[in-house]
Amino acid sequence: MLTVLVIVTGLLLLITLLPLSYSQHYLIRSCDFVRLQVCYLASAVIIVALIGMWQSGLIAYSLVAVAAFVILVLQAKWIYPYTWFAKKEVLTAPKSSDHSIRILCANVLMSNRHSEQLINLVDKYQPDLLITLESDSWWQDKLSVLKKNYPYQVQCPKDNRYGMHVFSKFNILDAQICELIEDNIPSIHILFENHQGLKMQGHFIHPAPPSPTEEDTSRPRDTELILLAKALKNNKRPTIVAGDLNDVAWSRSTRLFMEISDFLDPRKGRGFFNTFHAGYFFMRWPLDHLFHSHGFTVKRIKRLAKYGSDHFALLTELVHEPANSNQQLDDEMNIQQAVDELQMDNTSYKSVPTFDDDINKAQLK
């Protein structure tokens, strides 16, 4: 048993130490995803090692327990902000709050043919904005039944698992579809107005994941996040960023996005809300995200029931007080200006600074 514990502890230590490098290779960055699972395994190793030490008296068991405890502490430091024990980053809205905005973000899985299950979720929760990812022409056709309740739509069907649609009850004043980093990997950017006349921006993205079948490194994904963060840094208008980032909430790239943009994560202090993988309860992490600018409070966050996809849908309900917004200072801005900030002047994404550069290392200290 001691040999097995030593091997398992060594693997957990390797998984813990590798992400400390600034390498963007997918094998390194994938270690960010399993921090919660490593915590579980490290806790199990500690328990088994203590039992072994009690039964045999061997000092080696105590050394294994200490190593596993160090691993547990290092991993817990990353995920702690998303536990119930941490302080909430965004205040909870009073129950009596009106004029909320309800956003449902769903990676539908392009091959999923259970569209009626997603439509049932939409009918049940009645989001003001529905964002679908991996939605192709088949999904566009099936979701056309939503037209009655969602008269404003932005459609970008693709058959490469990067299609995207936005369905809105609110008036969409302007919309742009961009391919920020790579061809055929779009993002949608909208300016919309709620029923009280408050103008807000929505930016919806789905960058390619670092994996052996997609990208060898996380650089394209990280670059898209950082470009968006820099474009939104000085934006005064209430803004929401949502989508499947193919990144976990606690990674360096997500933290850097929040640091540069000064956006908030309503999940902090409320839970992980692991949205992937819907099929394996022991291998889940938060891949689907919603971030927002200051001025919002949280009325509800909920991971919804399965609907045939490998992702769960994420429902977030926010409240924004128009009196607290800077809308009057921002009336001259439009979505084109925000999109212009994202354009790279024909620059390759490989030349855009990301978190492996010294300036961004300093920002993360």
Please tally the β strands and state the result. Answer: 11
Strand order, main sheet: write it out.
3-4-2-1-11-10
Mean pLDDT: 89
SSE sequence, one letter per element: HHHHEHEHEEEEEHEHEEEHH
**Oligomerization:** single chain
- Based on secondary structure, the structural category is alpha+beta
Low-confidence stretches: 324-333, 349-365
Radius of gyration: 22 Å
Helix content: 25-40%
Indicate the proportion of strand residues: 15-25%
Query: What is the CA-CA span between the terminal residues?
Result: 40 Å
Give the biggest sheet.
6 strands, mixed
Keywords:
single chain, 365 residues, alpha+beta, six-stranded mixed sheet, five-stranded mixed sheet, 10 helices, 11 strands, 32% helix, 19% strand, disordered C terminus
Structure description:
- With 365 residues, the chain is of the alpha+beta class.
- Helix content is 32%, strand content 19%.
- It has a six-stranded mixed beta sheet, with no helix packed on it. Strands 5-6-7-8-9 form a five-stranded mixed beta sheet, covered by helices on one side.
- It is elongated.
- The two termini are 40 Å apart.
- The C terminus is likely disordered.
Can you lay out the helices and strands and say which pair or pack?
Elements: H1 2-17, H2 26-29, H3 35-56, H4 59-79, E1 100-107, H5 115-125, E2 129-133, H6 137-142, E3 152-156, E4 164-168, E5 171-178, E6 187-193, E7 199-205, H7 219-232, E8 239-244, H8 252-261, E9 288-292, E10 296-303, E11 314-320, H9 335-342, H10 358-363
Helix pairs in contact: 1-3, 1-4, 3-4, 7-8, 7-9
